[in-house]
Every structure is written in structure tokens, then in C-alpha cells.
């Protein structure tokens, strides 16, 4: 398969640095025999590499690294803090509590609708929630979630002020 000049141009640096596979090198050689433009580009690239190879290696000064690091943009990264735990614990606790209460209600409703036998019901332990006022049950996760939201907004405000000052 013949290669076009663009494909050859993309491979010339690897050709000069001797990083091509034998098959790729052979195909580049075949193209170079026929294409004067690519031969000129190869000659120029070879001269550049030869010139760079002949230059002495310059060691950076001791202050160079410090200057580079000082000029890097300051990046703020998110670091989880104990404040995250204070926020997540009440929120997740409220959600788990709410989920368990709703799951128990759903299961008790399913058992009633399908009239599962007494033997099957005795193996499944579902709390009896009929005597509990649902308004009282809902208040617990709502309070916990509200506390979590207050803590979350406080943390955001604190971080906002902290990062705005830096």
C-alpha cells in the first residue's frame, strides 16, 4: 500500500529517531525514493536533530525550579474534612430512617393485600405501625435532613469566604 506525503510527514520524526518498525521504515524508504518534497523535509528534520544533538546540555540554575513553582497558578483542591461527615451523618441517618419506615409500611400492605398465610407472616418480622402517628414519624428525618442542610450551607459559606480570601 502506497503512503501519501501527509502520512510520511507524520512518520518522519520517528524515522529520524529510528523508532519505526522495519515495515514502516521500508514503506517510508520506498516513498522517499519517489518524492523529492518528502526528501527535503527529511533532510531539514535530520539537520535539526543533528544540530540539537550537538548542543551541550544546559543545567538549570538552583533557583529555576523555585521560580517555576512560584509562577504556577494556585489550584484549590477539594479535601474531604470532618465537616463533610457532620453534614452527611444526619442527612443519611434521616434517609435511612425514612426508608425503613416506608419499607415496613409497604411490606405490611403487601402482606394484607395478598392474604399471606399465618405461617408465612410468622417468619417475617414487620413492625406494626398502625398505632404510630405518621406525622410523628416524618418529623424525625425532616429534622435530621434540615440539620444536614443547615450544616451544608454553613460549610459552603465558610469555604466560599476562605477561598475568596486566598
Strand-residue proportion: under 5%
Number of domains: 2
Number of strands: 0
The helix count comes to 7
Distance between the termini: 60 Å
Which descriptor suits the 3D outline?
elongated
Q: How many strands, which pairing sense, and closed or not: the largest β-sheet?
A: none
Structural class: mainly alpha
Overall mean pLDDT stands at 75
State the low-pLDDT regions, or none: none
Helix content: over 70%
Alpha-carbon Rg, integer: 36 Å
Topology pattern, helix = H, strand = E: HHHHHHH
Keywords: Membrane, Transmembrane, Transmembrane helix
Pfam families: zf-HC2
Protein name: Putative zinc-finger domain-containing protein
Give a description of the structure:
It comes from candidate division WOR-3 bacterium JGI_Cruoil_03_51_56. This is Putative zinc-finger domain-containing protein. By secondary structure, the chain is an all-alpha fold. It folds into 2 domains: 5-55, Orthogonal Bundle (Arc Repressor Mutant, subunit A), CATH 1.10.10; 82-165. It has 7 helices and no strands. It has helices at residues 5-16, 22-34, 36-54, 62-71, 82-114, 118-123, 134-165. Helix 1 packs parallel to helix 3 (36-54) and helix 5 packs antiparallel against helix 7 (134-165). The protein starts with a helix and ends with a helix. The model has no long low-confidence stretch (mean pLDDT 75).
Keywords for this structure?
Putative zinc-finger domain-containing protein, mainly alpha, 2 domains, transmembrane, transmembrane helix, 166 residues, Anti_sigma_zinc_sf, Arc Repressor Mutant, subunit A
